[in-house]
């Protein structure tokens, strides 16, 4: 596989998407190939059948390889699912010497302290995101590095998940014959694909409605402030239609996509759809008004649960107001009149998020569908990770060159070698999952 190409693997409840992309000369992402397969073995974002999941991954990968005429070796995979939850936590460290400036090592110490939090059995901290810092009681500091102070405090947004679920995903990827290059939180990947920097600054809630789960990510001042995973998605709507109209799942899904609407008021009583009966039975007649009533009831429930999470973050406080409102993405966001319903329930401005913000201009319309927001975000994440690796390799070279120069001419004043960048949590998590899988064999 070429060096500047990245592959995103979105393991969802209804579909598995493999997407191959690279950066073009304008810094935009060009999609070279895409593969899709029906997701078997995943329930509400969590793997519950390893063998079926591996087969589904292989199908999607083969299709993407054929489309791009490339061999895929490694992938960046997304994690989501109902086991992901988040909490707010504040912590502090007392520095031994307040006459030196705060540096990366102090922040590292503070973050490592958060990792000592006691979690429920089987849970582990996936992500620790500093919100704002306080130095010696002075609040609202965005960047403490380079400042003086004795007591360094910070508020953290801590994302927690079941480590066994994450390892299972890693196992599926490895068993499908792929290298695990990176792990990313799916709400973060979708956010990177569909939100602009201005929206993240102003305050925005991204709602990604998938098949099995609905992911929420809230940004304000360019920082992620709140994440939540609600264990309902498009599948429960299909299930309701199946039960309510006594039809099979395939027909229910088609009905939802073709005629479904989240707003029952717009259908007349006499609009009827006829559905073929099973094996010689009479066809069934369903009124569109009834169909949209069934959909409406379930969608209202999902949106209200999301709104509770937005209120939990504190949207109603003046300081935390989300000025850019709500952005809907994911396959479920394509439901007719959903935008109007969300605006009605929450009273917030709403738009549908298409992942075309960072894609090359000549991208296929199918790729810029909200359906592929997470996959596009994962490709972008994979490309970023490659850039970071190149930068790190360059710093390593500079450090070596500097050390050699210092050894060769001891009488010349020594120059400090450049500092290495701190690893992000997801990079550390990826390494830990890789180590675990390598040792488990």
From TrEMBL:
Pfam families per the record?
Answer: FtsA, SHS2_FTSA
Keyword Membrane on entry:
yes
Ranges in a coiled coil: none
Which domain of life does the protein's organism represent?
A: Bacteria
**Keywords, in A-Z order:** Cell cycle, Cell division, Cell membrane, Membrane
Name any GO cellular component annotation.
cytoplasmic side of plasma membrane
Question: Per UniProt, what is the membrane topology?
Answer: Peripheral membrane protein
Q: Where is the SHS2 domain?
A: 6-194
Gene Ontology annotations of biological process type: FtsZ-dependent cytokinesis
Q: Spell out the Gene3D superfamilies in the cross-references.
A: 3.30.1490.110, 3.30.420.40
Cellular localisation: Cell membrane
Presence of keyword Cell division: yes
Chain intervals for the UniProt region annotation (Disordered): 401-424
Assembly description:
Self-interacts. Interacts with FtsZ.
The entry assigns this protein to a family as follows: Belongs to the FtsA/MreB family.
Biological role stated in the UniProt entry? Cell division protein that is involved in the assembly of the Z ring. May serve as a membrane anchor for the Z ring.
PANTHER family recorded: CELL DIVISION PROTEIN FTSA, CELL DIVISION PROTEIN FTSA-RELATED
* Protein name in the entry: Cell division protein FtsA
Which gene holds the coding sequence for this protein?
A: ftsA
């Amino acid at each position: 596989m070429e060096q500047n190409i990245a592959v995103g693997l979105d393991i969802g409840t209804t579909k598995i998407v493999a997407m191959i992309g690279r950066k073009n000369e304008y810094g935009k992402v060009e999609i070279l190939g895409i593969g899709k397969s029906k997701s078997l073995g995943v329930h509400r974002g969590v793997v519950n059948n390893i063998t079926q999941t591996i087969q589904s991954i292989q199908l999607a990968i083969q299709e993407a390889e054929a489309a791009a005429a490339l061999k895929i070796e490694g992938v960046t995979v997304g994690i989501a699912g109902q086991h992901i939850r988040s909490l707010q936590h504040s912590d502090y460290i007392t520095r031994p010497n307040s006459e030196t400036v705060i540096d990366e090592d102090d922040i590292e110490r503070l973050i490592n302290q958060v990792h000592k939090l006691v979690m429920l059995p089987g849970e582990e901290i996936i992500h620790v995101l500093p919100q704002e810092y306080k130095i010696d009681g002075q609040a609202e500091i965005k960047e403490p590095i380079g400042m003086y102070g004795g007591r360094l405090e910070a508020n953290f947004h801590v994302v927690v998940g079941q480590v066994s679920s994450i390892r299972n995903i890693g196992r599926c990827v490895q068993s499908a014959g792929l290298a695990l290059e990176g792990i990313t939180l799916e709400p973060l990947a979708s956010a990177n694909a569909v939100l602009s920097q201005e929206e993240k600054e102003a305050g925005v809630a991204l709602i990604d409605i998938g098949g099995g789960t609905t992911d929420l990510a809230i940004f304000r001042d360019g920082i992620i402030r709140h994440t939540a995973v609600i264990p309902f998605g498009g599948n429960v709507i299909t299930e309701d239609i199946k039960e309510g109209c006594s039809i099979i799942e395939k027909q229910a899904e088609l009905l939802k996509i073709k005629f479904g609407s989240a707003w029952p008021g717009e259908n007349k009583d006499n609009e009827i759809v006829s559905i073929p009966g099973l094996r010689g039975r009479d066809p069934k007649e369903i009124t569109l008004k009834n169909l949209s009533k069934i959909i409406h009831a379930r969608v209202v429930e999902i949106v209200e649960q999301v709104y509770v999470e937005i209120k939990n973050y504190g949207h109603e406080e003046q300081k935390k107001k989300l000025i850019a409102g709500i952005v809907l993405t994911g396959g479920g966001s394509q439901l007719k009149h959903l935008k109007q319903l969300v605006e009605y329930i929450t009273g917030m401005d709403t738009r549908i998020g298409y992942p075309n913000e960072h894609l090359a201009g000549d991208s296929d319309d199918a790729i810029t569908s909200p359906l592929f927001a997470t996959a596009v975000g994962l490709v972008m994440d994979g490309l970023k990770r490659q850039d970071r690796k190149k930068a790190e390799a360059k710093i390593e070279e500079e450090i070596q060159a500097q050390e050699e120069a210092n050894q060769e001419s001891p009488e010349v004043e020594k120059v400090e070698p450049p500092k290495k960048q701190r690893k992000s949590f997801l990079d550390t998590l990826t390494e830990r999952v890789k180590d675990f899988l390598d040792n488990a064999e």
